[in-house]
Amino acid sequence: MNGPHDMGGMHNMGQIPIEENEPVFHSEWEAKVFAMSFATFVNYFPVDETRHASELMPPGQYLSSRYYERWLYALELLIIKHNLVTEAEIEERIAQLSQAQSSSDQR
User: Fold this and answer.
1) Residue 57: which domain range?
2) Residue 56's domain is classified under what CATH number?
3) Domain count within the chain
4) 86 occurs within a structural domain
5) What is the pTM of this model?
6) Does 5 reside within a domain?
7) What pLDDT, on the 0 to 100 scale, is given for residue 89?
8) How many CA atoms lie within 13 A of 96 on its CB side?
9) CB pairs under 8 A, 24+ apart, for 30-37?
10) Residue 7 near residue 13, CB atoms below 8 Å
């Protein structure tokens, strides 16, 4: 199967930007996604299933997403699939965090 994740060896895709002194994580949320993902690898589902889940991301979204956004997409899919949380619980938490951020921004 060829998808946006199977680009190895393709030509004319442009240069890969290399950031000098690049940090391991660009934002705190990336470190949290990394930690949550590793916790699930050990306890709930294997790395291969996570990789496959990230490859289910729609091609346009995959190509426009950052590395840890793909990890987050896979993590959300799998924790729902394995009945660890529901999609409604994720949406509710996103709403709570957005509301808290809005309140913080108003101060």
Assistant:
1) 28-105
2) 1.10.472.20
3) 1
4) yes
5) 0.81
6) no
7) 98
8) 6
9) 30/68, 33/68, 33/71, 33/72, 33/75, 34/68, 34/71, 36/75, 37/71, 37/74, 37/75
10) yes
Q: How many residues does the chain have?
A: 107
Along the chain (107 residues), what's the average pLDDT of each consecutive run of 10 residues? Answer: 58 78 94 94 90 93 94 96 96 94 81
Helix axes 87-105, 67-81, angle to 10 degrees: 130
**40 burial class (0-12, 13-18, 19+ CB within 10 angstroms)?**
buried
CA R_g for the chain: 16
Instruction: Report how far residue 29's alpha carbon sits from residue 1's, in angstroms, rounded to the nearest whole number.
Output: 31
pLDDT for 101: 86
Residue 37: inside a domain: yes
